[in-house]
Amino acid sequence: MFSHIIVFLLLVLSTIFLLLKLFIRNERYNKPTRIDNKVVIITGASTGIGKACAIDLAKRGGKIYIACRDEPINEKAFEDIRRESGSNNIHFVELDLASLSSVHKFSEKFHQLENRLDILINNAAVMTPKKQFTEDGFELHMGVNYLGHFLLTNLLIDMLESSAPSRIVIISSIMHQFFSLKHKDLMSDRYFNMFKAYGMSKLAITIFSKEISRRLKGTKVTVNCCNPGEVSTNITQEFIGDTISKIYSLMTKTPMEGAQNHIKLAVDPDLESVTGKYFEDCEEKEPSLEAKDIETGKWLWEISSELVSPNGKGLKFLEAHA
Question: Which of 4, 70, 245, 270 could form a disulfide linkage to 237, CB 3.0–4.6 angstroms apart?
Fold first, then answer.
């Protein structure tokens, strides 16, 4: 009798998990859009959603640059991407978003390798329960998830503008809606909580997507932001463990399902002139009120500029588009 109850409960739970997964998967980008010979940079593309995105865009004919750390560790990722996409046009340039020096070196190297950039996908992110700092002293979440991408994007603007029409795709999270930027505690010096720090960094990059799209108006460089939804990736596996992670994966999207927003924003011909928007499940949605606030966007741009380039040295900002 007891064993029958256990079996029944397992069946019920399995059914609930299946229904939840079917519910959250939602839309896919199914157009056979080609991007032959277009140059694409994807940060953090050696695992998870970024890797899935790289495979898809490589299949569509793109020249893919994987921008991440630890080249030896990423050799298997490159082999996987080449094998699953059927493309050998996959390249690696080292990028550590926790180091402003590394971001500058990446930009210099990329400018030597290429004379154009069609698609920039700011995908990389970290989430850690322990308070840590970047090489430059920034709280790790804010430094990697936002400030590293802020600097990278600004350093590559010249190539995006000269290659227009071109696109910037910025990855947010639903977590951006649950937190507010602390103007006097951007680095969580007074109080640190993993979810707060991660949420603030994702709010910052969502605000950034709105502000930079405003500054780039009229350039034919579009900027759009998306929330990939609940996806089982290395970020979750690192602090919930393998067993719980396997259960969690039953209720969440696969990396390829999570990458559908990235792919749509990167290649959909219908979005060529769409900019400054926020997407979920391949549909335009509304971000938080703070993410849309123009004054907050201006403030964040100014403070970010000071943080990544004291005295404005060595960095071309978009003042012409202010």
Answer: 245
User: Closest Cα to residue 230, out of 200, 261, 208?
Assistant: 261
Q: How far apart are CA 149 and CA 129, in angstroms?
A: 21
Q: What's the first-to-final CA gap in the chain, in angstroms?
A: 72
DSSP designation for 271? G
Closest by CA to 187, choosing from 122, 125, 128, 141, is: 141
DSSP code at position 309: S
Going by the DSSP 8-state scheme, the letter that residue 143 receives in this structure is I
What does the alpha-carbon distance between residue 189 and residue 197 come to, in Å, rounded to a whole number? 10
For residue 168 the two structure tokens come to: 């910037």
Two tokens, residue 93: 């340039």
User: Which string of DSSP letters, residue by residue, matches 16-59?
Assistant: HHHHHHHHHH----------TT-EEEEETTTSHHHHHHHHHHHH
Compute the distance between CA of residue 296 and CA of residue 293 in angstroms, rounded to an integer: 5
How many Å apart are CA 219 and CA 238, to the nearest integer? 41
Number of Cβ atoms within 10 Å of the Cβ of 159: 20
3-class DSSP state for residue 247? helix
Kindly report, residue by residue over 175-232, the tens digit of the pLDDT.
999 999 978 889 999 999 999 999 999 999 999 999 999 999 999 999 999 999 776 5
